[in-house]
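Task 17 of the worksheet. Students: predict the tertiary structure of the chain below and write it out as structure tokens. Keep your answer in the requested format; marks are given for formatting as well as content.
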Amino acid sequence: MAIGRVAGPMLLSTLDRQGVDLNFVTDPGTGAQTLVYLDFSNFRMGVNTSATTERLTVEGNISVNSYIKTSSINQNLTLIPNGTGNVNIVSNTNITGNTTIGGNAVVSGRFITANLQVQNLTPGRITFTDGSGILNDDPDLLFFTSNNTFYATSIESAGTVGYANLNITGEFIYTFGTPTYVPYFEANNMMYVHPGIRYFAGNAAFRANNIQIGSAGANRLLYTNASNAAIASASLTYDGSTFNSAGITRLGGIQIINQVISGLGIDTDIRISPDGLGVIDVNNHRISNIETPVNGADAATKQYVDERVVISNTNRIFQASSQVIVQDNGLGVANVVITVNNTQAARFTDTFNFIGDLSIYDNILNSTAGEIIVNPALTNRLRVDTTSSLLVPVGITAERPPIPETGDMRFNTELGTIEWYTGTEWDNASAPNTVSSQLITPNGIDTSFTLSQGATTDTVLVSINGVLQAPTTTYTVTGTSLNMVDVPLASDILEVRFLAAGIAFASNPTFINTLFANVSTGGGTTLDTFNITQYRSAIYDFTVKNTTTAQYQVGEIYLVHNNVSANVVAASKSRVGTQTDLVTWSASIDGLGVVRLVATAVSGTGTTRAKIGRTYFNDQ
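Model answer:
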């Protein structure tokens, strides 16, 4: 429609006519909409609004048919959104000239477009601004959308750089990183350095305090495969203390194939060396297939040890014809000791060129099979060097050796005598013998007398006036000399009876007398002992005295045993100065089969002394 001349005043009644604003509205009444507003005071113009804030304030869209141009040459054209608003350029828009997007404000502006095309740029190249602020590209800075790969010939950064995918084929320079520190990408795809990841160019060494491989399980060891890639296997593990491998073929200087350990190289040693006092424990298994030893420290097989034990080149023990031969080296004294259960059982002493002394412990020499032969050299005798006795074999007639040899000797318990084999028959000492007697007339002065035959103290019975004298205590016999302790009277009848061999070993009683012995109150005192195999019973005459209390006692003791326990019965015959026994009597058998007669003093006052005269009886 055409606009005619506006009637009436065109200015609002409220206008300051000194500084006139001009407002074109749709209706001057209430609710009028401003079309164009001219703010002459601030030199501003409003389109569709009277609230002007800039030289041109437009409420709504602006449509430009050609272009927007600055009024002055070389003047910038700036698009600034209000607050946090954006500058949106839609559809296909060509931007020419120098264009700045963003600013230095606290909240920078944004340039948002669905499709930005820059002419004269090569596909795949990343654009950048050069020194003049011009957007440019370079063939050394590429991004491949097919595999999201970034490519740069040279990367240099003064701060922190982050990339989702970084492909560097040339030189990588991290200018501001610490020397030897290797850069890496953090979870936010930013590049950092850490002292735990380092590379030393001087010796081409790479060091990382902690390396983790995502595909490897716990405790697995890494190794390189044919492609030089570090991989891990469940068959090769180490938990910090224990190494485990399903199959080891080479380790250091040894190789292990099918449970066989062998050295690498010809004539190489394999050494197992425990630490300190440690030992090699094969868990109760055998070690087999050992070579014959050569050196002193070489191990030996059981067969080799059974055949010989090498002590030196000439001093050795070896097996020959089922005998054990000990051969010395002829150079000096050396001992061969036999130990059983950590106890020395025997010792052979080497005296230069022969075995001299044989020492047997525990008093027993046993043979598991066959005879024990003691063979003195040449005409030398077998000597039993002791002041005690020699115990011959003991048994009944049926226990004689089935094939006796001349000279066999034993004690026959049925006959109660020593017997020997003459070569044709067994003979013994119980054959008829006569007891010879010698009467001696004393002169009342001499104590020594000459006997008609040689004897000993134990092979004669000496009596004076029919009273049997105690051997050793009252007399001794050496050869043909009888020596009395006291001088016999001239009126005494001194008789000496010589005991024949048959009587000496017969089952008749054996008379023995003892000297006085002190008797204790605690534990008692052993006055007599004999073996259970010697005698079955004994009768004792005893005399007990205590001179401090002037007490005396005589009596008899009857002892018998059953090889297990012993019993005594004591009977007092006479006492002086006391109405009670001075001692008590007991008997026992120890673990060695020895019968012991023990006297225990009743009173602790003074000293109690006792002596016995004993008669033994055996089972015959």
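Marker's comment: The helical segments are 302-307, 501-504. The chain has two helices and 44 strands.
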